[in-house]
Design goal:
Blueprint: E1 3-21, E2 27-47, E3 52-56, H1 68-80, E4 85-91, H2 102-117, H3 124-131, H4 138-143, E5 146-150, E6 155-158, E7 166-171, H5 178-183, H6 196-205, H7 208-214, E8 216-217, H8 220-226, H9 229-239, E9 244-247, E10 254-257, H10 261-274, E11 279-284
Parallel strand pairs: 1-8, 3-4
Antiparallel strand pairs: 1-2, 2-4, 2-5, 5-6, 7-10, 7-11, 9-10
Helix pairs in contact: 1-2, 2-3, 6-7
């Protein structure tokens, strides 16, 4: 195999709770992660020159070690003494810096592609062990599906598959610093924590309405007061028939869950027309396991 083309799928957080701030400055989380059918594409080709030749459709993205794709490739090239090179074209559709693990899922695809192209023989678990060195979300992006993430996001437990339903994605024309959000998060007796265990039970029962009712993201308490457009997008989605809408990760992307495809299609059009969001996509839940 000299070429491979891969889909790098985005994620949303159906639930995101921050348990505590650790002594090392990191935050311990409990999150329900879910893969969706919105994806970037990596086209990879083995070359004779020992280098990573990375290019992308977005001119402002770095194509050196500041890109997680490059770092993922270099990690395996260094470890296995790979003397060939790889040419990578990254076609990005997942919103950048949006709370959807766009960079992490690209890095995960790069690890998978390198393993295939150079016949390294690594299992998915072995790729996940290496992925955590690049970013806390990378192991999940290799695993995909519905999962509970704990620790700093690297401790993963597969969950029952999420109910298939339409998902509307809307990212406003702003960027949010994850560091800013976590630094300004107040964890005290007044903090409203989402019911992660209840959410997991709802998913196990395949109860979409209960899942929507138990969705929650503790980081909204920081991001929404600083970026009111996020609240505007959530309100618009609910007005358009979403059974619930919530910010993913540290934002600013908002997703809405829908029961009916027709309702979701109309909501997609109205969201685009509203001007609240710069990027709007209609997609669906991705499950890599079947009952």
């Amino acid at each position: 195999m000299d070429t491979i083309s891969l889909k790098a799928l985005a994620k949303i957080n159906l639930g995101l709770d921050v348990v505590r701030r650790r002594e090392d400055g990191y935050h311990e989380v409990r999150m329900v992660m879910q893969t969706i059918h919105l994806y970037d594409r990596l086209d990879m080709e083995k070359t004779a020159h020992q280098e990573i030749d990375l290019s992308t459709n977005l001119s402002y993205l770095p194509v050196n070690e500041n890109n997680l794709v490059y770092r993922a490739g270099k990690l395996l090239m260094d470890e296995f003494g790979i003397t060939d090179g790889v040419k990578v074209y990254l076609n990005k559709r997942i919103p950048v810096a949006a709370g959807m693990a766009g960079g992490s899922t690209d890095a995960a695809a790069m690890l998978y592609g390198m393993n295939e192209l150079f016949e390294l023989g690594l299992s998915r678990e072995q790729l996940m062990e290496r992925g955590v060195k690049i970013g806390a979300d990378v192991p999940y992006c290799l695993m995909r599906g519905t999962a509970l993430a704990e620790g700093i996001g690297e401790k993963l437990t597969p969950l029952a598959p999420m109910v298939k339903c339409p998902v509307l994605i809307a990212k406003p024309a702003i960027s949010v610093s994850t560091k800013f959000v976590y630094q300004n998060l107040k964890l005290d007796a007044q903090t409203k924590h989402p019911d992660i265990d209840g959410l997991i039970a709802d998913i196990r029962r395949q109860d979409l309405m209960a899942i929507a009712g138990d969705m929650g993201n503790v980081l909204e308490s920081v991001t929404i007061p600083n970026y009111p457009v996020i609240a505007g997008i959530k309100e618009k989605m609910m007005d358009c028939g979403a059974i619930n809408a919530m910010m993913s990760g540290s934002g600013p992307t908002v997703f809405g869950l829908f029961e009916e495809e027709e309702t979701a299609q109309l909501a997609y059009q109205r969201m685009k027309e509203s001007g609240l969001a710069k990027q709007v996509y209609l997609t669906t839940i991705y499950n890599n396991r079947r009952k």
